[in-house]
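Posting for a labmate who doesn't have an account.
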Amino acid sequence: MLGRRKLPIGIQTFAKIRNEGYYYVDKTPLVAALAEGGGAYFLSRPRRFGKSLFLDTVAEAFAGNRLLFEGGARAERLGADPQAAARPRLYLADHWDWGKRHPIVRVSFAEGRLERRAQLEEHIHAVLEENAERLAVPISDRASDVHIRFQQLISRVAERYGERVVVLIDEYDKPILDNLTEPQVARAMREGLRNFYSVLKGRDADLRFVLLTGVSKFSKVSLFSELNHLRDITLSRAFATICGYTEYDLDSVFQPEFAAAAEAGVPLERETVRRWYNGYAWEGEPVYNPFDILLLFAERVFRRWWFETGTSSYLVDWLRSRGYFTPALEQTFATEQLLSAFDVDHIEPEAMLWQSGYLTIEAAIPSHRGVVYRLRLPNQEVRSALNEALLTVWAPPQVNALANAATFAVYDILAKGDATALRDHFERLFAAIPHDWYRKNPIAQYEGYFASVCYSHLASLGVTIVAEDVTNQGRTDLTVQHGGTVWVFEFKVGEGQGAQEALAQLRARDYAAKYRNAPGVNQVVEVGVAFSPRTKRIAGWEVNRIAVNSAG
């Protein structure tokens, strides 16, 4: 096993990683599989999952830069610097036709923000000219439409080099996503991109390989109507780990980092790493977000690294405007059609959350309607950070300040199973909400508001939460586990007798049964809660405490 290497934080250039002593998780078996399997692909993954690095790896392979994929003595024989050659040899070194080189056309919308259709056109013109200059082919001037110049670029490059062209497009959807708060601008961007991308379908004879990557998959009736020839590998099991790190990667490639952390007296316990950062899944093996893992190794501190780098305030405000029932984050269901229902004028919450990486696929369930996906939050980082962000718009600032001040007290309350103290805590939270705030904020008018505040507050603490059953009618069975205590809640909107009904439901369903012999569980506290729509307060709080015989 090689020793420690440099951490490639924010590096998206394959050559730099290979030549300058950085860690690299070998994704080249998937490059070979894509090249062998067909010609045109689309891949959706959330931000900061390594899409740009994968595209650059593909580019170097098709350009025939074999040296970058070699390591050790073979790399030295090909002319690599001995220090740079001290790197692992990659799969593609023995599984690629290095005698054939293909010209590469690269397009990226990753940098900057385009806020007008004219800026989009200007950006595309500049990208086409850069490619034409690098590949030494003439294209018409800017008086021509971008789709005409793109056609010329592809056909003339293929003619000049006598090989079909590889086209790689990074962040294909960013000009639209950057303008979702301005639908008219977003529509104009969509039409401009549709005109540009239409070229790819008509130039098939000149194209060897096409790969578009982005965050979102727009519906087939909008942008994708011009890209319906692409094979969408977003939910392909064969490519589930195309971006991100697997458990095996952490145990092999990054084992030196775990050893170094332990030697320095700050061990990174694998189960804690897994709970915080693993869990992103696309119908296959779950993966870690690379950005999280690399910063964890660099700082040796568990923080919300990925979430803090660019979670959109638009997403949080948009969920608020929809009156989204936040306990549904723990478990919700969606069809493949719903997950793809993403367009400027029609975005479903499940599609927005899944494509952004805040929900992930837990299971694919066959049904008479086709496959239905069960979705959930991927890990502790997303659960606590997203709910903390939601709580800032679900409740006024004084409530958030009160919740933050009482955080450590709530941990102790949950661990001890002190139901009276927990009720007092929530009563203080709701009492801190001015009556005028309810009147001015539509979010406070919908039936599930009270349960959403309670759920988001508890979820933001980072304690273990499991949704047993979720509906959008203002009621949820929610399980919270902390210390040796398991709490099972049923929330209802109504007056005092609603709490008794809620507790009766809990006892009838007997959720406590699964914990009676669970390791480490000492007691189960069942709580039926009723919220009054009249007083905006807790109207009833009924408790049943069950001592269990723990197997641990």
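Reply:
Got it, the structure tokens are right above this. The longest helix spans residues 183-202.
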